[in-house]
């Protein structure tokens, strides 16, 4: 029973990979530079490694960004804690049901139950087993929905930041790449804006987190 419960809630796609899968659906982010508007977000000053100029095509290493983005880390930790709590509860229920089933079998084999009582207890145990499986399925769907919303929140925050960021930088395009996809196999380090974007995202997130 415990293994069944664990399989219902386990084997979930790692948070980072699921976020990347959604992000990589849009490989190229192209933003128009708006010169007269000031930035609405924090833009890190003087990153010596980034020497890309206005009109260049730059790139972001999304796996690195997600790993270092505080918002993604916080949301992931909260989600994983909730998922673990759900799994622990289901496992506890499963162990109790398994124990009750063994107790029933033991009493039945020793002839300690009438036929009528045995049927009633057996039906009650089977109903509990089905109810537990239904609960596990329900919790799994709820967790999948929460994970989907969490991933969208992360993607929206990154996309919104990059739109404002590029109003200042004015790059022709911002590409995304990962160690897995290798969208960009070789790239000039001067065109890698990952750390600058991470710093800006975290600065913005700190502002929001401090307000709450």
Structure, explained:
There is one protein chain. By secondary structure, the chain is mainly alpha-helical. It has one domain (2-211). The protein has helices at residues 2-9, 15-23, 62-68, 70-109, 115-169, 194-211, and strands at residues 28-29, 57-61, 173-177. The two termini are 42 Å apart. The chain is built from six helices and three strands. Mean pLDDT is 83; it is low at 2-16 and 19-38. The relative contact order is 0.25.
Keywords:
65% helix, mainly alpha
Provide a quick synopsis of the model:
With 212 residues, the chain is mainly alpha-helical.
Strand adjacency order, main sheet: 1-3-2
List low-pLDDT spans: 2-16, 19-38
Biggest β-sheet, characterized? 3 strands, mixed
**Head-to-tail CA distance between termini:** 42 Å
**Average pLDDT figure:** 83
Q: Shape from CA axes?
A: rod-shaped
Number of strands: 3
Work out the helicity level. Answer: 55-70%
Approximate strand percentage: 5-15%
Number of domains: 1
- Tally of alpha and pi helices: 6
What is the H-and-E element order? Answer: HHEEHHHEH
**Secondary-structure content class:** mainly alpha
Radius of gyration: 26 Å
Topology, pairings included?
Blueprint: H1 2-9, H2 15-23, E1 28-29, E2 57-61, H3 62-68, H4 70-109, H5 115-169, E3 173-177, H6 194-211
Helix pairs in contact: 1-4, 1-5, 2-3, 2-5, 3-6, 4-5
